[in-house]
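Quick illustration for those who missed Monday's session on complexes.
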Amino acid sequence: MSDENKSCSVPSTGEPVAMQSTTPMWIIVTTLILLFIGGVYFDRHSGWFDVKVYSPYSSAENLEAYQPKSSEGAFIARGKKTYEAVCGTCHGPDGLGKPDQAPPLAGSEWVTSKGINRLIHIPLVGIAGPISVAGKDWNMNMAAMGAALPDEDLAAVLSYIRSSWGNKASSIESDDIKKVRATIGVGAQPVTVEALMKLPE
Ligand code: HEC
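Prediction with heme C bound:
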């Protein structure tokens, strides 16, 4: 009986026999390395399944950091966009103006004035004739470039130019624009500096 069993489990026929072999070490190591890389990649790029987080942001904090800080920030960003589309062609995206085209807004006393009435008049009716800007004389014409803009947009543009390129003056609200616009008649001619100085600052 025991002899029969022995001949069964150890065949001497030369048939192939299934043998147990251990998984090669390199597969284990490679798998662990790949899992680790995958984990790191997931951590950096997945946003941990937060539906509000999407590429190129990696987390909710990261996404938050790139949003405008406040409604004030969004307002100025809107002003920048409108400025670059409507005013920047002449006054330059850097506010430095262009020779024979437009005076600078950066460092301009007309832009950073304490009172805002005269400044709001300039884009609403245009300005013509001699004007001194930051110690330099100009004598050109600007049409009513801001007249067609909604109050909110013009307020944003003026707030942007008052707080950019080293300018540090207070913001202007759409109500301020509305009030000045109400004092201006339809078809008003571009204002001269002489007439502008007669208006309250
Ligand atoms: C087509 C060119 C042009 C565009 C566009 C333009 N400006 Fe002007 N701007 C001028 C010129 C030229 C003067 C100077 C006029 C003069 O000599 O009397 C001027 C003067 C000014 C001044 C007073 C002087 C100074 O440099 O501070 C302000 C403020 C101003 N512009 C704001 C604006 C704003 C805001 C916009 C957009 C809503 C705008 N401009 C769009 C040409 C332009």
